[in-house]
Design goal:
Helices cover about 55% and strands about 10% of the residues. The chain contains 16 helices and eleven strands. The strands form five sheets. Strands 9-11-10 form a three-stranded antiparallel beta sheet. It is elongated.
Length: about 350
């Protein structure tokens, strides 16, 4: 959202006014109404690893003024996709005949006009229940495991009060009962977007697509007639090939903590500015991390596993997250001249630098 649009909607939600300047005339209009807004995520796809405000680029003060947020993620589901496609086709084929309505538009308008006449009051029991639910929201906000879209403040308590009163109006009652507060808490709890951090699978990122040459070779093997002895040899060779090991997984929270630890160490080394300091070597960064974690290592197998994991983390920070920049001056020249390029790249000890625009999220 543009800055001008954010300023306009901020004024409407905070002061309940809209300022219009046209032909030298400035007018301030009242805007005492409910706001229903819709937004598309940045890039057209919702990123579950980022909070809601980064997906839609809205500031925290504006987001805190909305009572409810709902994220609609377009995920591939065979049953859901079939139902949606069937519904759209029916609408185009039969138009209004396929729409079954329990209540007409006039009935809904009369019901809403009647419900607005009620001015419900909050009972003592509902007040105590509301305070208790707000306390639960605040306590859960401080716990880890998931990231909330915004901090739980008094504005969320005011939202709960407004939603409870609205639930009482919908039921055409003069008092706000605990069941209304419970439903308001459920809606507020669902709309406080808590993005479950996904599990990172490093092995899936290393999988490369099959080349065209391999496909051609496999097709040639299928097309040519091979004797029975050769087939038996092929089956024995395939059986002798070891299966892949279990995938290396890591929770996003552990990945973020480890990456922050590596980045903070690199920043500290860069700020020293000693003479002859050219940067942090990849091997030095790995050795420093292993030394920091030596108290948690009990066997050689755990040491090798932790070393492989930190190498995968650094590789992901370089190639996917673009948080670390890899500087290799001599390595690139060697790759072009040397026939065995893979051995050269694995033996290179490159320099690593943190991206200057990256800020550590604590």
């Amino acid at each position: 959202m543009d800055i001008k649009d954010q300023v306009a909607i901020h004024e409407a939600m905070e002061q309940q006014t809209i300022s219009i300047t046209k032909a030298g005339v400035k007018a301030t209009l009242n805007a005492r109404t409910s706001i229903l807004a819709a937004a598309n995520p940045v890039g057209g796809r919702y990123d579950k690893t980022k909070p809601l405000k980064q997906n839609i680029q809205l500031s925290a003060p504006i987001m805190s003024r909305f009572d409810l947020f709902f994220v609609l993620v377009d995920e591939c589901n065979e049953v859901t996709d079939y139902a949606i496609a069937r519904r759209i086709v029916d609408l185009h084929a039969r138009n209004k005949e396929s729409v079954e309505r329990t209540y007409s538009v006039d009935d809904m308008q009369r019901y809403l006009m009647f419900a607005r006449q009620f001015k419900p009051k909050i009972t003592k029991e509902s007040q105590d229940f509301m305070v208790e639910e707000y306390r639960h929201l605040r306590q859960r906000d401080t716990s880890g495991g998931t990231t909330s879209s915004w901090r739980i403040t008094v504005r969320q308590l005011e939202s709960m009060i407004r939603l409870s009163e609205s639930m009482a109006r919908l039921h055409c009652q003069d008092e706000v009962q605990p069941k209304h507060v419970k439903e308001a808490f459920r809606l507020l709890n669902k709309s406080i977007i808590r993005v479950e951090q996904p599990v990172i699978n490093f092995d899936e990122e290393d999988d490369e697509p099959i080349s065209m040459e391999d496909e051609d070779k496999s097709q040639e093997k299928m097309e040519t007639d091979t004797p029975a002895e050769d087939k038996e040899k092929d089956t024995q060779e395939e059986a002798a090939v070891p299966k892949k090991k279990a995938g290396m997984h890591m929770s996003f929270e552990d990945y973020r903590q480890t990456s922050n630890l590596l980045v903070l160490y690199m920043r500290q080394e860069e700020e020293k500015e000693e003479e002859g300091f050219e940067g942090v070597r990849k091997s030095a960064l790995i050795n420093w991390y292993l030394k920091e974690m030596e108290s948690e290592i009990e066997s050689e197998a755990e040491l090798l596993e932790l070393k492989t994991k930190v190498e995968k983390i650094i590789e992901r920070l370089i190639l996917k997250d673009h948080i670390i920049i890899e500087l290799s001056q001599t390595g690139l020249k060697k790759r072009k001249k040397d026939d065995e390029g893979e051995e050269v790249t694995t033996e290179e000890d490159t320099l690593l630098v943190v991206h200057p625009n990256y800020t550590v999220e604590v």
